[in-house]
Every structure is written in structure tokens, then in C-alpha cells.
Amino acid sequence: DAGVTQSPTHLIKTRGQQVTLRCSPKSGHDTVSWYQQALGQGPQFIFQYYEEEERQRGNFPDRFSGHQFPNYSSELNVNALLLGDSALYLCASSSEGVVFYFGPGTRLTVT
Amino acid sequence: GNSVTQMEGPVTLSEEAFLTINCTYTATGYPSLFWYVQYPGEGLQLLLKATKADDKGSNKGFEATYRKETTSFHLEKGSVQVSDSAVYFCALSVPTDSWGKLQFGAGTQVVVTP
Lengths: 111, 114
Known about the structure:
The complex is a heterodimer of chains A (111) and B (114).
Chain A: E1 5-7, E2 10-13, E3 19-24, E4 31-37, E5 44-50, E6 53-57, E7 64-68, E8 74-78, E9 87-94, E10 101-102, E11 106-110
Parallel strand pairs in A: 2-11
Antiparallel strand pairs in A: 1-3, 3-8, 4-5, 4-9, 5-6, 7-8, 9-10, 9-11
Chain B: E1 3-6, E2 11-14, E3 19-21, E4 23-26, E5 32-38, E6 44-50, E7 56-59, E8 62-65, E9 75-77, E10 86-93, H1 95-98, E11 103-104, E12 108-113
Parallel strand pairs in B: 2-12
Antiparallel strand pairs in B: 1-4, 3-9, 5-6, 5-10, 7-8, 8-9, 10-11, 10-12
């Protein structure tokens, strides 16, 4: 059984560009959450998707948006990239909202 | 609001030493508590969890007990190995309030030397 998978592994973008990150949840999981982890810090909650709807959102600007597809996979989009958006972006999935399993993350570098 | 406070690192230990990482929390409602571990260059792995007061979570020799009276969830291991070197995160969620949104502490780096 594959766990949570994310793509790409690494990404380098320029300020002002847009980026899309992808996540496939663990088999049987219907809820996907996205987190941003800056270097040396704990992950910060961006938003959560359930039944293709954004169910909850953390303290992130509208430049961060997402989508969940009927097969429960998800995308995170970030527009107008800033240097401060450089971080590890983690996807986590769950089937009952109690225990979340994380993917390996996408390392985004903005230059 | 909900928050997690854990001891600052790095914590440096010799192999076979006893490890304790302190974690305390503030939460509305009745949180579930978690310890996640992050090895260099990797994502987070769930280490153990406890969903109600006095529960003890355990895995791979690590243990933590949910103490409601002291709002704590300290992580312990009796004899660490070099392979335990990683960053450890304490986290909470209040499922009935926030659909499992995880609130993390800042992380504690553990370095185990041979």
C-alpha cells in the first residue's frame, strides 16, 4: 500500500512566478491537509480539503489556493511567489480526521 | 487558541542514554496528542499518539503519557541509538473543533553520538 506521495520533490522558481504542487493521499483516505514548514520551524497549517471543498484554512493569504479532485488527490497553488515562500510543503492525509499521515514533502526554493 | 510548547534543542546524548523531551499544551476542548519524527531531508512520520487522558502511546521504544492535570505529553526513551538522531515534533488536534488540524511545536533536534 503506497503511502502519501507528493510531486515534485524539489522545485526552484523565481519571485512573481506561480507554482503547483501535487499530492496523492494514502489509499482509503479522503481528507487532505497542506502544511508549510520553514527551515528550522514546525509545520504551519495552510488548509484542509474534504469532499472537494476547502473545509478549514490557516493564516495564509489568498495567494495560496488549492483543489481536491474526485479521486481525493489534491493540488496546492501559490501565485506571485515571494522569497518568504521558500519552504518544505507537506501534504497529510486521513480517513477520519484524527490521525494524519504525511508525505515526504516538496522543497520549494524561490530566488 | 491552541498551542504546543516543547523544549528547545539541540539535545545531545551518548548512545544508550535516557532521552526525555518535554511537551506541554494549551487547548480548548479535548485534544488528541501526537509525536512526529522528521529524519534529515524527509517528511514527518507519526511516532505515537494518545487520544484521551492517561493514555500511553508507545512505538519503537518511545513512550509518552497524556497527562491532563499537567497538560503535558513528554516523550521518553530508555536507551537511544545513533539512528534516533532526528527532529521530534509534539502536536495536538481537537477533532471536534477543527477537523484534525494539527498544531505543532517548534521541534526539538536530538543528536545521538556513538
